Amino acid sequence: MPEVHRVGRVDLVGGCRAFVSVSEAGSFTAGAAVAHIPQPVASRRIAALEQHFGARLFDRSTRRARLTPFGRDVLPSARRLVQLADALEHDAKHARQRPMRVAVPDTCGVRDLAELAAEAGALEVHLEFRAAAPGERAELVRTNEVRAALTAVPAEEGVWSVPLGLAGIAAPPGRVVHLETLRAGRGAGPRRRVWLQPEDDVPHVRDRVLRVRDAVGLRPAQVGVAESLTSAVAAVFGSSDLLLCSAAQAADLGLHWRPVGELDLARGYAVAATVGEDADRLRTALSAAVARCLGVEG
C-alpha cells in the first residue's frame, strides 16, 4: 500500500517526526540522520504528509529545507505530537516492566521462585513474590495488595495438586504410614504426634486428618497445627513425631517420607488475579515453573 495512504491512518507520527527533524536540522539529509531513517524515507514521509494536509511544508526552490508559512504554523503541533509519542513509548516500556506481585505459599523455595521469575522474565513479565498463609493470599488479591495469588483449594478443584504424606527422622518400616500405629500402647512413653504446618491448616486438609485421628483412636493432642513450618520441623527433629508435608519438602528437610495409609491427601492450588491475563500466564505459559515451586511431583 503506498505510504501516502498510510499517513492519515497509522503513520502520522512517523511523518511528523521526519518533518520536525528536517526542520530543526535545516536539510533533508541531516534531518533523516537525526530521525535515524534513510534520506529517501524522510522525503517520502514528508511528501505524504504534505499530500495528507493539502499544503507544502518546505520550500524546495532553495538548497536548504526552508519552512513555508504553512509549515511554520503547523510545526509546533507536529513537535508536540512527536513529544507525546515519545512519552507514550517511555510510559509503555515502564508499564511492561512494572512488577507483577504474586502471593505464594511460604513452602516455596528460593531457588524454585528464582527459576519461576527467570522464566517469566523471558516473557517480559517481571514477578515479585510475597509469602503468605492460605487465608491471606486471596484477601491480598481482593485488596489489590498483589495482582495474583496461588490460592489453596481442594485438590480436585485445583490447577495443581501436591500429594501429602508423613515424614520423620527415622525411615518407616513399610511403604505407607498408618495413623493407627501412633496409638498409645501400655507403656508410659511419650505419644508420637503429627504436626500440620500453617499451609495445611485449611478445612480440606486439616478436617480430613482430624476425622481419621478420631476414627483410629488417637488422642486429640496427637494431631496439632504448628505456629510455623520452622517450629513444626523443630518438633520433628527433636523427637519421633511426624510432619505432614509433600515429598519435595521432606527431601529438602532430609526427612523420610511415606504416604498416609488411611487416606489419599493432597494440597490443591488455583490462581486468583485482578486481571484475567495475569491468571492465564500463571496457569499456562508458567504452569510448569509454578508446579515446581509448589512441589508437584514430576
From TrEMBL:
Family, per entry: Belongs to the LysR transcriptional regulatory family.
Transcription found in the keyword field: yes
The protein's name: LysR family transcriptional regulator
Residue ranges of domain HTH lysR-type in the record: 17-68
InterPro entries: LysR_HTH_N (IPR000847), WH-like_DNA-bd_sf (IPR036388), WH_DNA-bd_sf (IPR036390)
Gene3D superfamilies, A to Z: Winged helix-like DNA-binding domain superfamily/Winged helix DNA-binding domain
Pfam families: HTH_1
Organism: Amycolatopsis iheyensis
GO molecular function: DNA-binding transcription factor activity; transcription cis-regulatory region binding
Keyword annotations of the record: DNA-binding, Transcription, Transcription regulation
